[in-house]
Amino acid sequence: MSSQVTTRALTPVEGELLGELADPGSPGASRAAASRPGATTEGDASAGTTASSDVPARRTGIRALLRGGPRGFIRGLTRPGALGRHRALLLGTAGIVALGAVWQTAVGLRILNPEIVPGVGATLAELVRLVGLPGFYVTLGQTLLSAGVGLVLALVIAVPVGLALASSAWLRRLLNATIDALRPIPPIVLLPLAILAIGGGLGFKVTLVLQGALWPLLLQTSYGLRAVDPLQTDVAASFRIDPLRRLFLFRIPAAAPVIFSGLRLAASTAFGVSVMTELVGGERGLGSILAIAQSGNNVPRVYAITIITGLVGLAIAFFFGRLERLLLPWQEATR
Length: 335
Fold this sequence. Notes:
MetI-like fold; 2 domains; 73% helix; mainly alpha
């Protein structure tokens, strides 16, 4: 199996991180040395950085609430309807701040081992430093590229096959057992087979991403089309509307919310599988720099990359949520 794994050139970010491991004075090297038996380590001071972001807002937005200072902020929140407009943002921000406070408190009181769980300040400082490395966004783009290509292929396959399954009972009976057998297989189980059959590169990653992203889209497409109210199609048929126009004018718009829920789930799965293939298979991307940080015992960097991965996943969910509201405005109005 090991003979199938080929060497490749390092990306700028990977070279930077591996260079730190080779430099005795670097933080990664000192942490790697400290992990050896009998090694001693000097205390390191980490400076937390705070990043402020100006959230674009309309007249009734967060900026308007903050303009008058604490008193104006409280007065703005108590204005009728103001809290409802900003409830999701405020609650989400409060949850993140509370989690960070609990994290830092647990580390400060040594409830959590600081050598295993670094403080919030050290993690954020490493995160800011990491995103400033040359080539970081190219590395992130490589992860997103494989996830995006796999997701598009899953969409191209899932929609017509889901339509066929929704339209034919005998085809569902024919393929149900096959789908039920293949769907639970985790992509990581197929990783050795993909290495043997494909080798490495983008095709290797896309194959595993496709395995993970296909099934949510396929099942939700089939279910959504079968759940369309038969009365709609019967009325359309009574007006002698041909089947193809009925499909695009009635069935697909009615099933679109269910299909979009499968698309959101498939997008998150595609990104996660892409990172996993890089972490385990050694391909370029976020997973590869996470593996380098782990091998160098650079704990703050491991946490920083994990946080970046979570933020990217959050951005993907936000993007597809906004896309759904843009393409399906009637669905938003019925919520």
